[in-house]
Amino acid sequence: DTGVSQDPRHKITKRGQNVTFRCDPISEHNRLYWYRQTLGQGPEFLTYFQNEAQLEKSRLLSDRFSAERPKGSFSTLEIQRTEQGDSAMYLCASTLEGSNQPQHFGDGTRLSIL
Amino acid sequence: EDQVTQSPEALRLQEGESSSLNCSYTVSGLRGLFWYRQDPGKGPEFLFTLYSAGEEKEKERLKATLTKKESFLHITAPKPEDSATYLCAVPIYNQGGKLIFGQGTELSVKP
User: Fold this and answer.
1) Do B96 and A4 touch (CB under 8 A)?
2) Average of per-residue pLDDT across A63-69
3) Nearest chain A Cα distance for residue B22, angstroms
4) DSSP conformational letter for A97
5) Contact residues, chain A, for B49 at CB < 8 Å
6) Percent of chain B scored above 70 by pLDDT?
C-alpha cells in the first residue's frame, strides 16, 4: 500500500519539550497539507506545500510551529516548547495539483502533552 | 466568511433504518465538495467529490447529493460497519485547495 504514512502514531511528552512529526505523502503527489484535529471537531488547516515551497500558513500556526519539505518529498512538522493546548491529532494529506483533486490523508500523529 | 456546518452532531440508528446527514456551506465560488469517513484513531478516508448542483454519487449504501447551499449524505439500510464519523469539506477558492471541514456527524448503527 502506498498511501500517506505518518510517524510516530502517538507521541507523549512533557510540557516545554520539542517534538517533530514526519509525513511521507503518496509519491507522485506534489501538494502536501498539515491539519490539526481536536476531539469532536473537523480537521483545521495549518499549512501546505507545493513541491518544496511552503505557500500558506494559517494563523493557527504560531511561531513555535515550523514545517519543512526538503526536496519536495517527505515533510516534517516541529513544535517547540509544547503547551497543553497543543494536544491534538496532527494529520497530513497529499494530492496532485489540479482542480478539485481529493486530498488523501494519513492516520495522523496523536500528541499528548503531560 | 467561509463556513461549513454539519447536522446532526450525532445520529443513532438501528440496523436497516435509513437516514440522511446534512452539510451546509457558505463559500465564495464553490469548486467542489468532498465527503470523508473517519474511524476512531484513523485519518479521514475519501468517499466522494461533488462538483455542481444536482450531481449525485453512490457507493454501496451511501449516496451523496449537492444543491447550491447544502449537501446530503443518504444512508440506505445501514449496517453496524457503517458506524463512523462522516465529514464534509470544501476547498477554498484560490488558496491552494486547502479544505474547510464541518465538525462531522458521528453515526452509530446498532444491530
Assistant:
1) no
2) 96
3) 15
4) S
5) 100, 102
6) 100
To the nearest whole angstrom, how far is the Cα of A18 from the nearest Cα of chain B? 23
Under a CB-based contact definition with an 8 Å cutoff, are residues B78 and B17 in contact?
Answer: yes
Is the model's pLDDT at A34 over the cut of 90? yes
Note whether A23 and A75 are within 8 A (CB).
yes
Picking from B12, B22, B1, the residue whose alpha carbon sits closest to that of residue B100 is B1
pLDDT at A99: 58
Model pLDDT for residues B32-78, shown as the tens digit of each residue: 899 999 999 999 999 999 999 999 999 999 999 999 899 999 999 99
Query: Which of A109, A84, A67 is closest to A16 using CA atoms?
Result: A84
Locate A16 and state its grid cell: 516545554
Give the model confidence (pLDDT) of A71-89 as tens digits: 889 999 999 999 999 999 9
Q: What values do phi and psi take at A27, rounded to 5?
A: -60, -35
Q: Say which of B42, B91, B101 has its CB closest to residue A43.
A: B101
By DSSP bridging, strand A10-13 and strand A109-113 are: parallel
- With contact defined as beta carbons under 8 Å apart, do A92 and A104 qualify? no
User: Where are any strands of DSSP class E within chain A?
Assistant: 5-7, 10-13, 19-24, 31-37, 44-50, 53-57, 65-68, 75-79, 88-95, 104-105, 109-113
Mean pLDDT of B81-97: 90
